[in-house]
């Protein structure tokens, strides 16, 4: 009896191990496939068709069943007639077609990691754009790290260098690094109460030296180069280090001002580059923006004269990426609230 029990237990363990190994062999290729798919994909959405469909749905909802039936019949005839006309015109004039308005979105975090998608979207548009095409960037960002937003602004400059008109719309906020991006545009539009400006630089760092000293904890830091470290988290900061840190901030601010003035030469840069922000209507008076409007109104106005295509480059996100995104987004929203106070 004991032998049968022992054999049964051994058999159960063997089966369990075999099942575990089989599952592992099935899971590993899936993990590799997901990892490889992280290169992302380009997504195109015809916004003009979407708006027309919404408009038709609203019209239909206001009709009774008989009116709906008649409308659908007439609408179908109209579509067939337009399709035949378009086909005929295409054969007659190959190069004659509506210009395209490409719509891209940038909702920036502190580290501006969204620039990885932006560069793919810009590259796609540059490779396909033709004469007369335009780009509308719907921008929302309170700013962040200089090198991240500097790269984002450089990506947008690629559009202008290729002769593509760039319009940037600010519906909520484009301050600091966000405005560094916005000023690249041929035309900046903003909602009346959107936050714009904050052309300044900020740097802060906590220091735990006194805490370590109080608890008799020594920290040894070695550097080669006088200014390899200016301010540190745990070391004792010096007056020279603080002065160099402030000098670095001032130099960055000068570069920021020069860049904005280069992009918008009519702007009185010294009057607006003090770190202050303004609402849309105030920003228009200061020359920081060109038009008071929303991105929705701009798109609706363009539908009659342009094809409107939204371009998105989507990366596959791991659970850790999604968690980091939520944390960064929460910090960005907190910063936005602090600025708005």
CATH topology grouping of the largest domain:
2-enoyl-CoA Hydratase, Chain A, domain 1
- SSE-based structural type: alpha/beta
Overall spatial form: extended
Number of helices: 12
Distance between the termini: 79 Å
What is the helix fraction of residues, given as a range? 40-55%
Q: CATH superfamily of the largest domain, please?
A: 2-enoyl-CoA Hydratase, Chain A, domain 1
The total strand number stands at 9
Count of domain modules: 2
Mean pLDDT: 82
Q: Unreliable segments (pLDDT under 50, ≥5 consecutive)? A: none
Using the CA coordinates, give the radius of gyration.
29 Å
Q: Largest sheet at a glance?
A: 9 strands, mixed
What is the CATH class name of the largest domain? Alpha Beta
Order of helices and strands: HEHHEHEHEHEEHHHEHEHEH
User: From the structure provided, what is the oligomeric state, counting identical versus distinct chains?
Assistant: single chain
CATH architecture of the largest domain: Alpha-Beta Complex
SS strand fraction: 15-25%
């Amino acid at each position: 009896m004991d032998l049968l029990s022992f054999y049964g237990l051994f058999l159960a363990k063997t089966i369990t191990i075999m099942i575990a190994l089989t599952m592992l062999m099935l899971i590993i290729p899936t993990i590799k496939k997901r990892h490889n798919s992280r290169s992302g994909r380009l997504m195109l959405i015809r916004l003009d068709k979407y708006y027309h469909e919404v408009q038709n749905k609203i019209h239909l909802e206001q009709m009774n069943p008989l009116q709906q039936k008649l409308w659908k019949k007439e609408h179908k005839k109209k579509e067939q007639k337009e399709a035949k006309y378009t086909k005929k015109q295409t054969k007659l004039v190959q190069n004659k077609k509506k210009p395209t308005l490409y719509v891209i979105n940038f909702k920036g975090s502190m580290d501006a990691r969204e620039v990885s998608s932006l560069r793919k979207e810009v590259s796609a548009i540059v490779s396909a754009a033709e004469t007369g095409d335009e780009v509308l960037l719907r921008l929302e960002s309170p700013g962040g790290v200089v090198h991240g937003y500097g790269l984002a602004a450089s990506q947008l400059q690629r559009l202008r260098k290729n002769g593509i008109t760039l319009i940037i719309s600010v519906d909520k906020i484009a301050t600091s690094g966000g405005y560094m991006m916005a000023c690249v545009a041929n035309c900046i539009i903003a909602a009346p109460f959107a936050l714009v400006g904050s052309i300044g630089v900020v740097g802060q760092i906590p220091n735990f030296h006194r805490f370590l000293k109080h608890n008799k904890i020594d920290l040894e830091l070695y550097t080669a180069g006088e200014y390899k470290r200016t301010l540190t988290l745990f070391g004792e900061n010096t007056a020279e280090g603080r002065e160099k840190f402030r000098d670095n901030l001032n130099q960055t601010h000068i570069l920021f001002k020069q860049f904005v003035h280069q992009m918008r030469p009519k702007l009185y840069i010294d009057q607006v580059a003090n770190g202050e922000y303004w609402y849309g209507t105030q920003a228009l008076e200061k020359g920081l923006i060109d038009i008071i409007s929303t991105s929705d109104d701009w798109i609706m106005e363009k539908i009659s004269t342009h094809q409107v295509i939204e371009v998105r480059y989507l990366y596959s996100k791991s659970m850790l990426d999604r968690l980091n995104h939520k944390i960064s987004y929460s910090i960005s929203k907190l910063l936005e609230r602090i600025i708005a106070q």
